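Consider the tokenized backbone below.
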């Protein structure tokens, strides 16, 4: 399969996931929706906690709510940020929680995609055998 063929197949599967064409597509879409919504909620809650824990701490770089949102979002994306990690005890516990959550989400999504591609491959093989 050429590079364009692989890209077309990937785009076709992505559209099928969004539409929920099959049971496997719907399950993957539902899992992705749940992870995105949970992560957005956790991002907001953690930003509020980080802001109130850090805003008056000496030598912190998280002074505004915008700083807190930026810091929590980059932590959840597992890319870190140019802001130093929190220095308050609450902020440090929050940092560890968010990093553990981010790693768990990445591992869960990897497993979900792996299961989807395996099951989808079996489904396509059965369709090919039937024809």
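A designed sequence for it:
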């Amino acid at each position: 399969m050429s590079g364009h063929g692989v890209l077309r197949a990937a785009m076709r599967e992505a559209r099928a996931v969004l539409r929920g064409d099959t049971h496997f597509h719907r399950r993957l879409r539902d899992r992705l929706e749940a992870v995105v919504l949970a992560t957005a909620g956790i991002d907001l809650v953690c930003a509020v906690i980080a802001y109130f824990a850090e805003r008056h701490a000496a030598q912190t770089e998280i002074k505004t709510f915008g700083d807190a949102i930026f810091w929590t979002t980059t932590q959840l994306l597992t890319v870190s940020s140019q802001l130093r990690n929190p220095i308050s005890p609450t902020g440090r516990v929050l940092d560890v929680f968010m990093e553990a959550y981010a790693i768990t989400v990445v591992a869960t999504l990897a497993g979900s995609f792996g299961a989807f591609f395996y099951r989808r491959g079996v489904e396509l093989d059965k369709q090919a055998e039937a024809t």
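The chain has one domain: 22-130.
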